[in-house]
């Protein structure tokens, strides 16, 4: 059976001795046969489950439910009080901020220390060192400084970069990606999605969107016990019910409105004069952002315009805007397709479109040396607080069969510092909201 599983957990428990006063520890040691001077706290209580190779398992639970303790036992940094935990393969773990790092060692020394603890030889670390530093994005002047001088974001970036290079079979991540800038979080998410193709991931988070997006299975813990082992959707629903209580929702029949006229949400006048206004800061176009493609076409500018075609560095959710993409081609294009994707910090695509359908039956050709501009005009949605990444892509061909000339992952970063109440991944302007009394 072991060959089919990455992790096998059988009746595992972790019990801590709790002493009211320090002296009670000595009393228990020397006078324990005459009485008990301690109480016991069970952090993990008789849990059993197996994780198949290639699974992406999310672990949910309120604070104190035993999530971190369970992960530490899987990673062998903590010994169980009872039961057995078998792990098949190399484990790389990012359990908490700076775990495995010595604050008095330099960044370079910690890279070698941490990578060695994760199973790499000195020669393997030598070969991967430059790639580790490049992936982390830690400024060169900090690499020779002690870790204690680093910001929390720099520590996580360096730690994640190490575990991304140890060729692990099992990756364990515990809330660590909540720290870090938008560019690095997007890079981490791309690595995780690539790792999912062959490796096993155990992912702990309070972010239910992350569990739904990344995982194919989820486990719910409560007070040290396993409550539910099921699909992410089922586990998230049960977890939210625990947090907020059961909510009975009446079924509401939706009627289609055949009206293409643009409209303004009547609440916006109030919202935009309050602290609920959906303020969105827009970064400048990052020409050095990572991406891929065969080349031949270069995206030279990406900006967001207002309804007067003026570039914006800041907008408010619900306003009418245009995403403007300027390109220059060094090859002939006979069927260009320009598109965009807006992703949240987890790499989930929450808004995307391209030009294909609009121009599929129209002649649109460009010659080498031509410059051209594409605009996507729409009313921008309201978004929850956080950082978002706008990616841009340029291809040639059809929707099903095309050549990708350039894809830029993080052309713009949008930062939401305040938000009206958004109940989903995005909010849209409401034309009207009514409540009417119905007669019997």
The level 1 CATH classification of the largest domain is Alpha Beta
Name the CATH architecture of the largest domain.
Answer: 3-Layer(aba) Sandwich
- List the secondary-structure elements in sequence, H or E: EHEEHEEHHHHEHEHEEHHEEEEEEEHEEE
Mean pLDDT rating:
84
Multimer state: single chain
Count of individual domains: 2
Major sheet: size, sense and barrel closure? 7 strands, antiparallel
Rg result: 26 Å
Low-confidence stretches: 245-259
Description:
Pfam families: ABC_tran (PF00005), Wzt_C (PF14524). It comes from Vibrio qingdaonensis. With 440 residues, the chain is α+β, with helices and mostly antiparallel strands. The protein folds into two domains: 2-244, 3-Layer(aba) Sandwich (Rossmann fold), CATH 3.40.50.300; 268-416, Distorted Sandwich (Coagulation Factor XIII, Chain A, domain 1). The chain contains eleven helices and 19 strands. The strands form four sheets. Strands 10, 11, 13, 15, 16, 18 and 19 form a seven-stranded antiparallel β-sheet that branches. The protein has a six-stranded mixed β-sheet with strand order 5-6-7-3-8-9, sandwiched between helices. Strand 15 (336-343) and strand 16 (349-354) form a beta hairpin. The longest helix is centred in the N-terminal third of the chain and has 15 residues, at 122-136. The termini are far apart. Mean pLDDT is 84; it is low at 245-259.
């Amino acid at each position: 059976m072991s060959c089919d599983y990455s992790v096998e957990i059988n009746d595992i428990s972790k019990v801590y001795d709790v002493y009211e006063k320090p002296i009670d520890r000595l009393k228990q040691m020397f006078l324990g046969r005459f009485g008990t001077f301690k109480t016991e706290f069970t952090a993990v209580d008789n849990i059993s489950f197996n994780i198949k190779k290639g699974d992406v398992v999310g672990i949910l639970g309120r604070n104190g439910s035993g999530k971190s303790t369970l992960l530490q036992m899987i990673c062998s940094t903590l010994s169980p009080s009872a039961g057995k935990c078998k792990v098949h393969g190399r484990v790389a773990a990012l359990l908490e901020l700076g775990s495995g790092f010595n604050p008095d060692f330099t960044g370079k020394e910690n890279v070698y220390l941490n990578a060695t603890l994760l199973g790499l030889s000195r020669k393997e670390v030598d070969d991967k060192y430059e790639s580790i530093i490049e992936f982390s994005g830690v400024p060169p002047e900090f690499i020779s400084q002690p870790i204690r001088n680093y910001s929390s974001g720099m520590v996580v970036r360096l730690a994640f970069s190490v575990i991304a290079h140890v060729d692990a079979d099992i990756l364990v991540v515990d809330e660590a990606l909540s720290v870090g800038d938008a560019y690095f979080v997007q890079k981490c998410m791309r690595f995780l999605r690539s790792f999912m193709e062959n490796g096993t991931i155990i992912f702990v988070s309070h972010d239910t969107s992350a569990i739904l997006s990344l995982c194919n299975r989820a486990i719910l813990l409560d007070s040290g016990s396993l409550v539910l082992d099921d699909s992410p959707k089922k586990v998230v629903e049960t977890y939210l019910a625990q947090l907020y209580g059961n909510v009975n929702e009446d079924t509401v029949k939706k009627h289609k409105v055949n009206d293409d006229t643009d409209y303004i949400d009547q609440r916006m006048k109030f919202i935009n004069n309050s602290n609920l206004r959906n303020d969105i800061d827009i970064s400048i176009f990052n020409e050095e952002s990572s991406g891929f493609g065969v080349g031949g076409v270069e995206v030279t500018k990406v900006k967001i315009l207002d309804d007067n075609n003026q570039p914006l560095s800041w907008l408010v959710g619900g306003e009418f805007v245009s995403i403007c993409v300027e390109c220059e081609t060094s090859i002939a294009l006979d069927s260009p397709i320009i598109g965009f994707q807006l992703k949240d910090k987890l790499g989930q695509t929450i808004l995307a479109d391209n030009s294909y359908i609009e121009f599929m039956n129209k002649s649109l050709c460009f010659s080498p040396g031509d410059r051209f501009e594409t605009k996507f005009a729409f009313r921008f949605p309201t978004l929850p607080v956080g950082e978002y990444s706008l990616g841009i892509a340029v291809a040639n061909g059809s929707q099903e069969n095309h050549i990708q000339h350039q894809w830029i992952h993080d052309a713009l970063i949008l930062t939401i510092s305040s938000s009206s109440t958004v109940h989903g991944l995005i909010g849209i302007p409401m034309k009207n909201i009514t409540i009417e009394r119905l007669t019997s």
